[in-house]
């Protein structure tokens, strides 16, 4: 059979032709470019426009960075060094870098203390966030951190933070003991015990003010990016528990609790943050007796916390509303009381749903801390707008300073956002 | 009922404030530092340097008062205030004296209940234009676009000036001075107007200062000076005469260098002797030590030295004395006699 046509066919191919490479315009980079960038006249125009814009931006940016100078004592020396080469005068960032980070009033020989507190933050935060991977005792680090950080940054005797910590601890234990006899009784007893310990602590700390003493730094001296970080971290951590309480209160069946929560949330959300800050700074000063030393940072922290807890309450209320009614009924049918069903069934699910919203509020709040520059506190923006831009040495430098501020803020906000996405993936329990 | 509660609270707070403001001198001495309100930064007038130490023309007034009262020019707590917070800070007692480029006006002196104790800088509103515009006088600015800071007296003065001269202009309202300069340099407006001292200070920071010119017309009176609260005239006297001591010191030739030597023994000039405490009891009359004026002058120098060191012609800001020369040199700086 095989040679039936042997004489009529000159050549019979008995092997397969090796596949030839596809035409050049159908492979690799060229294909990608053709399909993605020049697939039609409209796309081609947009691509060329985009390239032109990128070129225009980079042709300004690259010489600005590459030709920039990091030496020089004032803007005039900078200009002499640059000789019109289009470079940036980064000398201002080099000279004023400590001021951008710590403000201009924090004593320079004490700057190691806030720096150490910042480093310790990376030990204190993971236990709260990654507790599923770490032993439970590491949570103690998180619990100790706020008091340690306060002592490091503000100084003074170590007895003050110790007694505040004791007051919190014993207040909580009293509350837990007495809670069985009624929530309100427990709460009152807890507050009384905490107040008593703080009062005794005040006496003792006054008596032994040399004990464990670091040189005290006034609140007025806080500034720079440090102030933004302090306000951001403290207010976000405080406003999450307050936000949960407000969200639960808003759903409560008790009319007074519900009414208070609704009025608080709606009032605070209806007022711009900047007016609350003005109240903290200016109006309160009229009501307090002239020599009352009610710390400005404390006033600002209270106002920002009020503001952000109202927002977080609404985010969490969204999470609570998203849970099917069956989850609440499941809690009831298991015989759990209100606190137990909230703690064990409702809140874990509602909080998971609320994570993107909470992170959104947290990032927004962190950036909003720059508003304190308007009430003459020297945070990062306040430092740039006030003392640095209006110094005889550096008046006239703008872009370099604002670029530095952008980089600092972007680093932190991008980190927060990446972390929250990771956390969402970790908490995904729906096995899709 | 609620109203009465709020009113009662206000009344108590008001009484408390009035009671405590009566003896500022005692408060300052007990506290050990002077709380002095300054700007958040105006080149040459008040600015913290790279080490965080406040420097400047207004800052020198704070340091002189601290030296006179406490004998230590470093015993000052500087409280930076913005244009929005300065008056409440003083009225509420947070600061003892405000030395912050503040124009002495009728309503601030009376309605806001402050006492201006003198003038340490006579300023006035000026105009800056690009040299290329070829304008030599503010009278030629008809139809110009003008960058101005909103909510300031400059805005009102500008409207008055153009109306009086029958000219029209197009305002470009801007929030801060630094931003206004950026807009002006970018060509968003033909003219930038603000106090002449600020124009000179900001021009010093330009890349090409020679491309811009400050026009000769000054269209308003802006007497800048330190101020205190109503209700404590003894304290107002102390601040007023500390400023006068710096001014008289320049007139009488007392400087930072020679003040120690002049105060060590009575000299030929009785007024110097009275001021420096080697003759008479002027210090005791205002509740201070006899060396109060000597301490103030030794700390910061006389008025002329303060001027030259911070904003004078040898500094990048390069202001001429002009109206701020001593009256003998044709200026307005004049101190009542020490007698």
UniProtKB/TrEMBL annotation, chain A:
Record's InterPro entries? AA_ABC_transptr_permease_3TM, ArtM/GltK/GlnP/TcyL/YhdX-like, MetI-like, MetI-like_sf
A Gene Ontology biological process annotation?
Answer: amino acid transport
The compartments listed are: Cell inner membrane; Cell membrane
Per UniProt, what is the membrane topology? Multi-pass membrane protein
The membrane spanning regions, by residue number, are 45-66, 116-137, 149-175, 182-205, 225-248, 260-284, 296-316, 353-378, 398-417
**Cellular component, GO annotation:** ATP-binding cassette (ABC) transporter complex
The ABC transmembrane type-1 domain covers 225-420
> What keywords is this UniProt entry annotated with?
Cell membrane, Membrane, Transmembrane, Transmembrane helix, Transport
Q: Pfam families of this UniProt entry? A: BPD_transp_1
* A GO MF term: transmembrane transporter activity
**Stated family:** Belongs to the binding-protein-dependent transport system permease family. HisMQ subfamily.
Q: What is this protein called?
A: L-glutamine ABC transporter membrane protein /L-glutamate ABC transporter membrane protein /L-aspartate ABC transporter membrane protein /L-asparagine ABC transporter membrane protein
Automatic annotation (TrEMBL), chain B:
The Gene Ontology biological process annotation of the record reads:
amino acid transport
Q: InterPro entries, from UniProt? A: Bact_solute-bind_prot3, Solute-binding_3/MltF_N
Q: Where is the Solute-binding protein family 3/N-terminal domain?
A: 33-262
Q: Which residues form a coiled coil?
A: none
Q: Give the range the annotation lists for the signal sequence.
A: 1-22
Database matches in PANTHER family: AMINO ACID ABC TRANSPORTER PERMEASE, AMINO-ACID ABC TRANSPORTER-BINDING PROTEIN YHDW-RELATED
* Name by which UniProt lists this protein: L-glutamine-binding protein /L-glutamate-binding protein /L-aspartate-binding protein /L-asparagine-binding protein
Originating species: Jannaschia helgolandensis
